Amino acid sequence: MTGVRCFVKSSLAVLALPVLMAGTALAQGTVKIGALLAVTGPAAFLGEPEEKTLKMYVEELNAKGGVNGQKIELVIYDDGGDASKTRTFAQRLVEEDKVVAILGPSTSGPTMAISQVVEDAGIPLISFGGAAVIVQPMKKFVFKTPHSDRMACEKVFEDMKKKKLTKAGLITGTDAFGKSIREGCIAAAPTYGVEIVGDETYNPTDKDMTPQLTNLKNKAGIQAIMSGSFGAPAAIVTKNVKQVGVTVPFYQNHGVASKSWIDLSGDAAEGVLLPAAAVLVADKLADSDPQKKVALAYKTTYEKATGKPISTFGGHAYDGLMILVEAMQRAKTSDPKKVRDEIEKTKGFIGTAGIFNMTDKDHMGLDLAAFKMVTVKGGNWQLAE
Is 199 exposed, middle or buried (0-12, 13-18, 19+ CB in 10 A)? Predict the structure, then answer.
């Protein structure tokens, strides 16, 4: 893409280093930003729109002069969602590529695998992973842009409370995200007067979750079921819910907030409820909503450039990049430690996920108001009533 020095280095492309180093030598007057994304593999539905978003907006920023008079050189590694590869690539970004900040990874496990790497290096990381443990307990150099898994639970329980539903069942994966959302839901439930009456788990490689869902369906008094997973397993659970004849409200989580999940789930997605970022329903927001202008602009730009529908995941990349760029502008330098300080001072930043207000005690900066409860009607997203 014109104006962008962007090297996408997959886990199979390590031998291309001499070419990459040659490209780096030409990059005078630039500032390097790294990105670790699951462009391929089972989490590609996250990493692909994130990669497209970063490339698109770096090109736009560079066309306007870059940041602090320097063009941005974006160095992307495709980690395939593999935590061990992510750690190797993170070390390479720090030691060889000499980046001033890192965006990503796409998921929670790889983020946790590199948190100590960036802490030791003193390089700010803005993760696109959902797990609350990324920033709780807080680490000095680690930030995140998606809503946390516990917030997803809280938004679901808030909706249940409005509907006077008090008994819920959980079905979650045993991966890092599934475990974290399960813990978040169990911890948050009492605050909303919700009792967890069924608690089922599955291996992310499982192809059928009907036994677990049948157990939940048969729990006495159960009034709602919430799923904690993403990708193909989330689609399998959704299909299985319909197959076993669950009639109580079924909630998914923000990890499925893309058209690909609807397509994978088919007509089983109809009527499913979930909390999601405003960008998913940008054109349906009230004109008075402060996020509408930003969310709609991102939706229009992304869909025009790619010919594909937006997801909240590309929006997380947009938010992370713009928070970083604004921090660099305020710092008037690309010094990683000074940039970190300014990221922490982010206030009133209107992004696709919400209005960010970070502090020295909160490296996410979102509240529940940032979430919208959405549903699927006619194979597309709608605001839930």
Answer: middle
Other residues' Cβ atoms within 10 Å of the Cβ of residue 282? 23
Find the helix packing angle between 44-63 and 292-306, rounded to 10°.
100
Q: Quick check: 43 and 86 in contact, CB under 8 A?
A: no
CATH topology of domain 149-283+371-383: Rossmann fold (3.40.50)
What distance in Å separates the CA atoms of residue 260 and residue 381, rounded to the nearest whole number? Answer: 12
Residue 69, classed as helix, strand or coil, is coil
Burial class (CB in 10 A: 0-12, 13-18, 19+), 119: middle
Q: Which of 193, 178, 262 is nearest to 226 (CA)?
A: 178
Distance CA 217, CA 144 (A): 35
DSSP-based three-state secondary structure for 144? strand
pLDDT in tens, 223-281: 999 999 888 999 999 999 999 999 999 999 998 998 999 999 999 999 999 999 999 99
Distance CA 291, CA 277 (A): 10
Enumerate helices (H) and strands (E) in the chain, giving the number of each. 12, 15
Rounded to two decimals, the pTM is: 0.86
pLDDT, one tens digit per residue, over 60-103 is 999 999 999 999 999 999 999 999 999 999 999 999 999 999 99
CATH match of 5-148+295-366 with 3.40.50.2300: yes
| Per-residue CA distances from 37 to 190, 302, 309, 383 (Å) | 36, 18, 19, 29
Contact 321, 58 (CB under 8 A): yes
